């Protein structure tokens, strides 16, 4: 499983001209699910995302400007978007190979479990729409982007 996380000022996801999810100040997380992923790896990924320290610590002068707080500590939101392209193999040729991505029917069920777990762990979680043509509008903060794997 891979997650590309971005620190954002705000982000929204639109499907067919309707906003399906949005947050202010927090993290946008694109989630890629692979063949071997399961509920345990999904829970580990959410735990890692929620505790990954990529927010400034402005409270402590000794730590000013250091990435010392996580999204929970700053009261930020989390927007989760399923993104099978993160599992692409890109080391050869000029066309991505999506053979490592989980099949859509299994990925949708696991993504729903991942979202439910996230909502149980954090009060401000939004999502895109699985399998839809989504338009993601974000204002990145930093920008800070990290690729996480579990």
UniProtKB/TrEMBL annotation:
Belongs to the DTD family. InterPro entries: Daa-tRNA_deacyls_DTD, DTD-like_sf. Its main location: cytoplasm. It catalyses: a D-aminoacyl-tRNA + H2O = a tRNA + a D-alpha-amino acid + H(+); glycyl-tRNA(Ala) + H2O = tRNA(Ala) + glycine + H(+). GO terms for biological process: D-amino acid catabolic process. A Gly-cisPro motif from one monomer fits into the active site of the other monomer to allow specific chiral rejection of L-amino acids. Transmembrane segments: none annotated. This is D-aminoacyl-tRNA deacylase. Its EC number is 3.1.1.96, 3.1.1.-. A motif (Gly-cisPro motif, important for rejection of L-amino acids) lies at residues 142-143. It is an enzyme of class 3 (hydrolase). NCBIfam families: D-aminoacyl-tRNA deacylase. SUPFAM superfamilies: DTD-like. GO terms for cellular component: cytoplasm. Keywords: Cytoplasm, Hydrolase, RNA-binding, tRNA-binding. An aminoacyl-tRNA editing enzyme that deacylates mischarged D-aminoacyl-tRNAs. Also deacylates mischarged glycyl-tRNA(Ala), protecting cells against glycine mischarging by AlaRS. Acts via tRNA-based rather than protein-based catalysis; rejects L-amino acids rather than detecting D-amino acids in the active site. By recycling D-aminoacyl-tRNA to D-amino acids and free tRNA molecules, this enzyme counteracts the toxicity associated with the formation of D-aminoacyl-tRNA entities in vivo and helps enforce protein L-homochirality. GO terms for molecular function: D-tyrosyl-tRNA(Tyr) deacylase activity; Gly-tRNA(Ala) deacylase activity; Ser(Gly)-tRNA(Ala) hydrolase activity; tRNA binding. It is found in: Cytoplasm. Homodimer. PANTHER family: D-AMINOACYL-TRNA DEACYLASE 1, D-TYROSYL-TRNA TYR DEACYLASE.
